[in-house]
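User: Can you predict the 3D structure of PPM-type phosphatase domain-containing protein? Sequence below.
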Amino acid sequence: MTRAEPVPPAFVRDEDTTAPTVGRAAHGFRASLDPANPLRVPSVVADAGQLGPYWVAAAALTGLSHLHLGTTGQDRYSFHADASTQGVAVTVADGLGSRPRTAQLGADTLARTLSQALAATPGTAFGSDPRPAVAAAVAIANERLCDTADPRGPENLASVFAAARLPESGGPLILARVGDCSAFGLGPDGFFPIFGEKDGALNEPGAYLPADDPLTGLELRTVPAGGCRALVLATDGLAEDLRGSPAIRDWLAARWERPCHTMWMLNSLRYRRQGSHDDRTALVVWFPPFE
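Assistant: Sure. Here are the predicted structure tokens for PPM-type phosphatase domain-containing protein:
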């Protein structure tokens, strides 16, 4: 006996939103749940609140392409404040789409481990050249991924990241990435990219973790104290929209002008843009003193 094709409801209710629609966005997009993957992650995750001296808001929304196909989203974020060092670090990570069942586990492990390792590193270790301290934290995260992965296929946890060690006592903001995640500063004139443009498509990461040499694709940037009033870490689905759409930049700059709570953060990412079907993840850090 053949099971009949399921018939979706004729009408599915949703909460109203003021988020804009840019271009010719598809309507009637059918959403399906990942039916047979016990490793799937929730389609929506969000947080907001005080993290040490900073205010942080973050959200990860599974993209329409995953929802339409009934596959899991692959973006994750994490933050950590270390009680011993007083260090604070934040990370966003994106599992590679070519590993559709398990890459989200790599992204989760990478984001959590790297945030912990960066925060646990004393601020004095970053000094005038932060690269050795950042490289050591990345190596710890890479080792954790290798230990977690199936030795027959460690690439099944393949993920990329952008991370930040937040400043201490007037020091600089230290940022690192491997792959195609991005970071933006938000100032009075709007967003500015902290990492340069990559060659080729934004969603072709090149380097990723775990890797035999995790430092091959490591990029590092510093932003002086006071260089921005907010920091945005973003996976490529959101970064591509920020780079490519003035309307989305204006929308998010206005939404994130001041610290926000969880529902405000979620609604910020509910815009619709033609061709924007990937997962969207953003983690925003506001620096004191707050307006």
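The chain has one domain: 34-286. The chain has a mean pLDDT of 90.
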